[in-house]
Amino acid sequence: MNGAVKVGMNLLLWTDKPDPSVHGELLRRIKEWGFDGVELPADNMALADARAFGALLRELELGCTAIAALDAAVADPASPDPALRQGALETLKLAVDNTAAMDGDVLCGPLFQGLGRFSGRGPQPGEWNDAVETLRAAGEYAAERGVRLALEPINRFEMYLVNTLADGVRFVRQVGLPNVGLLADTHHGNIEELDVPRAWREAAEHIFHVHISENNRGVPGSGHAVPKEAFDVLKDVGYGGWLTIEAFGRQVPGLISRLHLWRDYAEHPDDAARLGVQYIRRHLI
């Protein structure tokens, strides 16, 4: 595996509203646990807070990536409603600005469509093309700010436009921008891919970012979605980006119903981070 690989931790394990005046100590603990950086939700953050986070991260010598998700009621790249497509573009521009303010190099997430909307059908050509055009405009803006977009195929129970890396490859090729690629997520691959290592190999040139996320969203290595083979294929293809833990628990009320978090998945709320980074580091040797 490329020596530039970095291990990150998504703050959504603890909060969906990061605040630089509140979460400084959390960032310090993450640094002490052995992470190279953090991933922060950037689509609902004030620019002043993003700048404050950037200063704090530089002080701690932590790198940064950012994540965004789109509420289909107000922002949907695949909607036939131009106002919702424009809402998606404005949300993504804000997230890009915040990413740049935090010195982040990647903005990732399931950005193909607004979450929470299902048509009862599979993706239609019109909405696919609308999403491509919207993400192309977002990608052009991101390129001006030095940010890459890593689009995340997620499972069919959360989104219907793009569920597999193969469909994601088709999408980003149609967007046609060098700074727009894919996020490969072990949790969603565990649901949707017939052969996760093969899917990753075939999409390797377009994978900008990786989420290490267990099948139950708990501690990486405690289930079956993050096996040794996942790291082997990244070594084989020379992946040199972030391996970021995305885990969830019941300590963030805003995510409980959205992600169906009805039980605890670890003995301690911090276990997914503390134990997960150790699991990843063992596979980077």
Brief summary:
One of its GO terms (molecular function) is isomerase activity. With 285 residues, the chain is α/β, with parallel strands linked by helices. Helices cover 42% and strands 14% of the residues.
Order the strands across the largest sheet as they lie in space: 1-2-3-4-5-6-7-8
Specify the structural class: alpha/beta
Question: How many domains?
Answer: 1
Q: What does the main sheet amount to? A: 8 strands, parallel, barrel
- Specify the oligomeric state: single chain
Count of individual beta strands: 8
Q: How far is the first residue's CA from the last residue's CA?
A: 9 Å
| CATH fold topology | TIM Barrel
Distinct helical segment count? 10
Helix content: 40-55%
Uncertain regions spanning at least 5 consecutive residues: none
